[in-house]
Amino acid sequence: MGPHSRRRHRGHVTAPGGKGPPGRASAVLQLSGRAGHRTNRQLYAGLYGVQLSSNELRARLESIGLGEELGRRFKQLSGGQQQRLALFIASIHEPLLLLLDEPTAGLDPQSRRQLWNRIESLRSEGRSILLTTHSMDEAQAVCDRVAIMDHGVLVALSTPSGLIEKYKDDAEVIKVAHGAVTLEDVFIGLTGSGSHD
What we know:
Rossmann fold, 2 domains, two-stranded antiparallel sheet
């Protein structure tokens, strides 16, 4: 390799049995609290090369319950509104893959359910979503496949119901279960009952 040559900095990751890379991905980035959400939206739309009319933007924002909040600063929005706006901005260019890191952390039940509905809507449009969460009820509600990690090591991968079925008779899972085995019981049984903060 010569002094001015560059190493290849891209690669491809595929799930077992999956197709090649989708070509477009998005992550929820940090938004500016001082700027109005119109400014944040325009900034990210510009970065993605998206041209939408004011009417199209308003209609899209109204579809996620943010139409009336158009003039407010980002930091003035509730936590649920901020998360919905962040997801809206991450999906504004219609990526085939969205990376969401604990998108419902700290949200009230209503806001959490609204975000779950938006995630389901994106999935129904053919988007793939990689979601990290510590909430096993969230994983069970919105994920069609769950990977359980323990200290950076993949310990189980299946559908939520497949994991429950496979591990429901496991001695470690039975120890933590209170009644019918849940995905959370499987997680704790596989990763241990100590804190993982």
